[in-house]
Amino acid sequence: MADFTQTKGTDSITCVFSSDLDNIDRAVESLMDFIDTREMNLNRFETNFVLREALNNAVIHGNNKKSQLQVICTLAVGKNDIKVTVRDEGQGFDWRSRLEHRHAISSETSGRGLKTISDYDFDIRYNEMGNTLYLTKKIL
Amino acid sequence: MSFIERKDGLVTIKPGIDIISSQCESLKQEFLEIINSGEKKIVIDLSETEMIDSSGIGLLISIRNSLSNNGGGEIELINMSDDLCHLFKVMRLDNHFTIS
Q1: pTM, rounded to two decimals
Q2: What ipTM does the predicted assembly reach?
Q3: What percent of chain B has pLDDT over 70?
Q4: Cβ separation of B90 and A22 shorter than 8 Å?
Q5: What is the CATH architecture assignment of B3-99?
Q6: CATH top-level class for A4-138?
Q7: How far is Cα A108 from Cα B81, in angstroms, rounded to an integer?
């Protein structure tokens, strides 16, 4: 199993990697480098944060940091949007409940990622099982 | 390895890196050593930190909680970038840390 691979197309990039935290950094760097080659009206910090949260969730919560499990992330650039798909090999989770209760209280150490992704105007969807995340960001 | 300075009863820690999931475990150990040495107020200099992800936020909150549980304490975040300040506002955390 490859530790980290990336494949670039004209309008998309796909990263496949084992569930190690260091690979999140590599994937985010690759995805941001791809975005940087385009002239896109995107907030770089917010996009970086959202990609990190999506990949953190897949590696840490989805695959429980089991390095034998992979994460597949594709970022596709459209004319008016970007679409990000992140799939892990975990058991999924009750995403409906999580999306309904996104407001973490101040003393909690986790539970803010999805709300912040939403606050940064990324549309959030999951597959039924909850192990594939679909993000869409409209570009004005 | 963070830069740590003790001066006039105040400890300042400058991570010098992003506070993200891949760095949290080693940073946690550094913070715990400071807390366990009895410090009540910790200043975190974020002048060389561009990104804090939710794992990093969780780490900062756990440090704050540890200080509170040790009889009260405070974390002051200094030299935050505009992006990080905005992130803390979006997360409604700006009222829970001293930011200057």
Answers
A1: 0.93
A2: 0.92
A3: 100
A4: no
A5: 2-Layer Sandwich (3.30)
A6: alpha beta
A7: 24
